[in-house]
Amino acid sequence: MRFDIISCQPDLLQSPFSHSILKRAQNKGLVEIHIHDLRKFAINKYGQIDDYAFGGGAGMVMMIEPIAKCIEALKADRSYDAIIYMTPDGETLNQKIANRLSLLENVIILCGHYKGVDERVREKYITHEISIGDYVLSGGELGAAVLTDAIIRILPGVLNDESSALTDSFQDGLLAPPVYTRPADYEGMKVPEILLSGDTPKVEQWRFEKAIERTKQRRPDLLED
Ligand code: ADE
Fold this sequence. Notes:
single chain, alpha/beta, Alpha/beta knot
């Protein structure tokens, strides 16, 4: 899967892709991440990519020309299955959306800033608008990092233990059950006996029951869905 991320603060995106699972996924050739500096497509030599909003009001608006030039340059080389705009008024990201997007091949992600992008960008180019939650970030970069992480970790071959993505919270509509590791007894706090029994079907049943219990307590809305 290939991601082309368009940003006016590309440095913000270096770190998330340089570590751990996301780095390994790239090294294994399972994913390509290309970060594009929007200022390279600025309308003048001062690097201008934004301007005041027509009609007045505080905050700058990202102009259509630099974004259009960048997207057109990318589209000249390949076709894209989705052009995603990170924005607080988009559809709230969840596991289902991440699963669906993980089936795509080539994806552009546009990171917004300031007051957002000129509405005509959304009309002309954007196929999906995604928010990572009901709060406003300084820009779309952190949202793009969250979205790509959620997608990449479920791509086949990315995690060493394939089953571990399948048992994540939300993957079956439930929160994950509690997990334990050594020591089996920490200052009198004992690991549930069943997990030490070696009886796999019983362990699975226990995990399922705990997942339901935890979901009922913390996120009853997931059970309603
Ligand atoms: N840009 C600013 N806030 C955002 C949010 N909550 N989700 C995605 N992109 C954003």
